[in-house]
Structure formats: structure tokens, C-alpha cells
Amino acid sequence: MNTKRYCMVFSSLLLLLIVLDAARAQALAGIPDAWIRSVLKSHQQAGNHQQALKSRQLTLKSRRQKTTRIVYQPAIKKRMLAVTATAYTSHVAQTDSTPEIAAWGDRLRPGMKVVAVSRDLLNQYGLTRGSKIKIHGLPGHYVVLDKMNKRWRKKIDIYMGKDRREAFKWGRRKVTIEWAG
Questions:
Q1: Which domain, by its residues, includes 48?
Q2: Which residues are within 8 A (CB) of 84 and not within 5 positions of it... i.e. 6 or more apart?
Q3: Whole-angstrom Cα distance, residue 138 to residue 96?
Q4: Domain identity same for 93 and 145
Q5: What pLDDT digit, counting tens, does each position of 46-91 carry?
Q6: Where would a tag sit more exposed on the chain, N or C end, judged by fewer CB atoms within 10 A?
Q7: One domain for residues 38 and 98
């Protein structure tokens, strides 16, 4: 394939190269590494990458005018953080006068896999109401439906329903949580 034809065929892939990572683009189109790096560098210097990242759909036309639509789906980043984990139950002594109602107004029922998180995890680390987190060492995923008092930092509280004994058995532990950020 001569250079001129090579450039014509792949000129419509410029936006694709900016949106997709280099390895995926290379596998998709068989483009040499040096060419990918030079195109990405030139577009980043020109500031065109911002516009390309906003565009979720790209239409590519080959020389024969066949149209291919590629929908960009951003990669999900997994975030991990070491936190202190304690447990709480639905008792007035551990919460407030409405122990079955979480801070955002969600009704908690025994058996739910719910956690309360410290405010810094909400403000600085990107957790939100309804976020699903994985607590290493425990099965399944837990949902963030409650938030803790402002004084706590890097802390989660695991909801144990009405089982005080299980909550005391859990105690305080250092755990790693993982979520899509």
C-alpha cells in the first residue's frame, strides 16, 4: 500500500485515534505505533482532543463509501481505597430517632447490603448515593445509601440490620473498597 493511499484511508480515523487508546486503535486498523503516536501528539498540541472526546459517535467512510458507525464507550476506571470499616444497626442508640431512615431518606430493611460512608469519600473520592462498592473480604456488592457524621474521615459503616451481636463481632477493621469511578 503506497503512502498516499495509506494516508487517505486512515485520515478519517484521526478522531478515532484520539478517542480510543492506542492499543485498541492499532488492533482495529493495523496502524503502526509510530504513526499513532505522531497523530495523537499533533492533535493534543492543537487542542482537538477535547472536541473528539465530547463526540460519542464517529462515522467513518472507506474508499468504497461504506459507512461504519463506531460508538465510543469510555473505559470504566476502578478505584480502590483503604478505609476503616465499622458496623451499625437500626437502633436509636446507634443512629437517631428514625433508625430505619438513612441520611438521604432511603428506608433500610434488615438483609440489605448497604453502607454509610464518610463525607470525604463523597466529596473527594467520587462516591455518590447509589454507588456500588466491593468490600474486599466480603461477598457481593454494597450500595451507598447513607452518609456518616462530618467528623469521620476514610471510614465506612456496614449496615447489619437489627443484629447487634453481629455488629459487635465485626468490630473495627481495615478493609479495601473498590468502585467504578
A1: 3-71
A2: 154, 155, 156, 172, 173, 174, 175
A3: 27
A4: yes
A5: 555 444 444 434 444 445 555 555 555 556 788 999 999 999 998 8
A6: N
A7: no
